[in-house]
Write a structure and sequence with these properties.
The protein is an alpha/beta fold. The chain has a single domain, classed as Rossmann fold, CATH 3.40.50.1950. 42% of the residues lie in helices and 16% in strands. A six-stranded parallel β-sheet has the order 3-2-1-4-5-6, with helices on both faces. It binds flavin mononucleotide. Flavin mononucleotide binds next to helix 2 and helix 4.
Length: 190
């Protein structure tokens, strides 16, 4: 079973991270889940769902959950075999930590080691508008091998629900992470 690290940070859009976890599990991937301190608060606020309730709904054999302060966790090491990592949503703060190499929590550290191991790292970045620091940090992480995928759904498929908008972004993120489509979104067909 291939495993993927999923980081959920305190940017708006916790629903993207939740959906990434659900889709990965449904496709048979193991998930190594890390939710930042603020990520937990925003998740519970935006989704009106205690994080523990979400976690307890997931299959135990497919999901490992780590505290963001647990730098002894397996995903802290580049030798732990994972396919790659997605951070959804990714805050400007976490982007800055990854861009500078200042790995303070387990999400920063896991991104850092996956980049050094040349594995796919997808940052579903959520902030608007962008200041110069954001733009420079995006450039730095892209140069280091990351994919920065703004949480920016398209409307050409005429989405009718929030879930369809979310799935557009999640499909694009997981396609870049896994190297194949998850089939959530069929792409542009005129
Ligand atoms: C309700 C709420 C929404 C937020 N939305 C964003 C956002 O969209 N983008 C962002 O970069 N930060 C956002 N923040 C700020 C981050 O949570 C804050 O910078 C935090 O320190 C990020 O830490 P983390 O990346 O470790 O989760 C938001 C905070 C709150 C409370």
């Amino acid at each position: 079973m291939e495993r993927v690290v999923v980081g959920i940070t305190g940017a708006s859009g916790s629903i993207y991270g939740k959906r990434c976890v659900e889709v990965l599990i449904s496709k048979g991937y193991g998930v190594e889940l890390v939710v930042s301190e603020t990520g937990r608060k925003v998740f519970e606020y935006e989704l009106e769902l205690p994080l523990e309730n979400f976690i307890s709904s997931l299959p135990e054999d497919l999901v490992n959950v780590y505290s963001p302060s647990d730098l002894f966790a397996p995903v802290s090491s580049g030798s732990y075999p994972v396919k790659g990592m997605v951070i959804a949503p990714c805050s400007a703060g976490t982007l800055g930590h990854i861009a500078s190499g200042a790995t303070v929590n387990l999400i920063h550290r896991a991104a850092d080691v996956n980049l050094k191991e040349k594995r796919p790292v997808v940052l579903v970045f959520r902030e608007t508008p962008l200041n110069r620091v954001h733009v420079e940090n995006i450039l730095r992480v892209v140069d280091a091998g990351a994919t920065v995928l703004p949480a920016s759904p398209a409307f050409y498929a005429r989405p009718k629900t929030v879930e369809e908008l979310v799935d557009f972004v999640v499909d694009r993120a997981l396609t870049h992470l896994l190297g194949k489509s998850c089939g959530l979104f069929k792409g542009w067909t005129p």
